[in-house]
Design goal:
10 strands, 5-stranded antiparallel beta sheet, 561 residues, alpha+beta
Amino acid sequence: MILKDSGTRPGGRRFSLEDQARALALVLRDEFGVAFAFYDAATGAPVSAREEVDEAALPGMLLTPTQVAEIAADGRARVTPLSEDRYQLALLLHEAGRPVLVAAAEVVGLAQTIPEAVEERLRLQKWLQAVSDRLRMADQLLVRRRQEEPSGQVQSAWEVALTAAHLARGVRIHKDPFKNRQRILETAHGLLGAHALVWVPHQLDTPVLIQGETVLAPADCRQLAAALSQSPGMQPGQPIILNDFPKTSWGARFPSVFNLLAFLITDQGPVGWVIALNKKGTGGRGQGAGDRGTGPWSLSPDPCSRTGFRRSDAALLTPFVALLELHARGSRRYQDLKDLLVGLTRSLTAALDAKDSYTFGHSERVARIAVELGRELGLEGDELADVYLAGLLHDVGKIGIRDAVLSKVEPLTVEEFEHIKRHVTIGYSILSDLRQIRNLLPGVLYHHERWDGTGYPEGLAGEAIPLLARILAVADAYDAMSTTRPYRDAIPCRRVEEILVQGAGTQWDRRVVEAFLRCRQKIHTIRQRGVGESLQQAIDGALRIDNSLSQWKSDILPRRP
């Protein structure tokens, strides 16, 4: 039942005993409510399950190599009293009939008297042995199935579970949805044994993904999904197995399909179809005898053909369908959260602009200028999105600065200057509890640090200043100098450039200033077009059509020409 080195992940990598221990740790912890330690049945050496079990909670070395060898030789689960109220549990786990892992744990008893303790130990022994027997029977069933099935067509439940677990750990909701779905589909196809595994999205502007052979063209896949959707009795989440597809009313429309297995994925409405086409080993137009198809449109098998989809294939595909569904739901929630974050960010900057009319649109311009600098420095994707949001928020702390100081025409006193310097720490405090944007906080807190270490609030110098803050410092200085303020008129752009060059290596990072010079025409265009002078226009432009982050990104982060 358990995979040792004989099991492989897609790509040829092998499952280790540690992989198996991690998966079984979850099962046994759910069963008994305690953490288990694992040992190699052949050597007695401990096997780590550290990714799923807090090993600090284990009571040390539960079993010696000698005890492990005894349990492996005996083959039975055992309950050993350790004290008046504690028991040691130990059971053996098999793969292909061979002992591979010994699992051990300690549990606290509830008995108050000796007779109760005896009865309690017997109940624990029966419980533990029943779990051990179930695991061994599952292993024996797998061995028989592998003997009966064509080579390579039976997958261990543990192989599927471990593969899905590894895949789930690698999927990032905020990354490219297309690549995530492609990876899930590729992994599932490697285990299923179908000629093709297809993802047919409900949205027509999202491409169809085909893994394996091109049994149907993308347009035909959409037609097949539409036909499945319109059929009576269809239930989301329930597998559909059609093992005599040519005899259905759709057979003539799709002559290359002999059988199929399909799931509809939903999330407050249809999201898409996962369809497996033509089980490997299918001969001619049907399936082999064996497990009959299930679902609202299942047909009887054709005993003259060799193989078809089984309920076990549906069970194998289910974790990957669930992962696709989880990804769709998570992506939508993440999208909603990002849209909310953009809206809240713009609301904060609007409040700041309303407080200080002389800096109206400053945060928006700094954000867009910073994006151009970041792109010139090689940043892309989510990094540029972070630069933009940090630019919008960099001066949010000025909400806590006195109006009289912000709008003062005369030179600031020492006390007033110290007061206005507090805006970086105030901004940090305002945003610090928002876990989703913590990566933006260095830009808010440190954008007034100087390369030579004479800035504030902490006097950081050189590379110790986060890159995000160094980018914002140049963008902020450029826009501040080229904008009219209460105490001075706007400085001509040519003179601003001279000041930036003179301050490179002392006030600002030389690399960022050089990036500014390379893209200064784009930055001047931002100024000339008045980007940010009407925040409401910027909001309308960024959130038009469907208020989606993809639209926002297309406006804020244009591609290179």
